[in-house]
Amino acid sequence: MENSVQLRDVVPEDLEAFLAYEHDPEAVRRSRFAPRERDAFMTHWRTRVLGDPANFVQTVVVDGETAGSIVAWWEEDRRFIGYWLGRAYWGRGIGTRALTAFLEREPARPLYADPAAGNTGSVRLLEKCGFRATGTVRHGEDEHVMLVLGGGA
């Protein structure tokens, strides 16, 4: 049976699940993203993510459970997206369905994403949803793939 995948606005209780998912060792390894301590995580989410009205933030819900998040934000003149799913939701088509639904609601194009080069699952997910690789960028020591949907590089 296929799982029910829905998007909804973030509620405060979701932040506990998001924090746990950010601290999953395999997710950290794949994303090349250092997890934040609890207070820093909560402050970041409440002020920078949820506190910025220019951001579009959704919780991914699978069969009634908080599975992760998808966010669109501005970096200078570029609109970026990012997402994080709990490991239990990987490899089941949930990311594709959630991101497809998110892209139907997020009108900005072009959209950019820059997953770690070694995060092949994330790169594949973005490509399935129409993003195209335009090159690579570096974040510190790590190489990331720059992908774009719907427009210039």
The separation of the N and C termini measures: 39 Å
| Shape annotation | globular
Q: In angstroms, what is the radius of gyration?
A: 15 Å
The chain-level structural class is alpha+beta
What is the mean predicted local confidence, pLDDT? 93
Query: Main sheet, how many strands, which sense, barrel?
Result: 7 strands, mixed
Instruction: Show unreliable segments.
Output: none
Description:
Helices cover 32% and strands 32% of the residues. It has 153 residues and is of the alpha+beta class. The chain has a seven-stranded mixed β-sheet, with helices on both faces. The longest helix has 12 residues, at 38-49. Pfam families: Acetyltransf_3. This is GNAT family N-acetyltransferase.
Short description:
The protein is α+β, with helices and mostly antiparallel strands and 153 residues long.
Keyphrases for this structure?
alpha+beta, 7 strands, globular
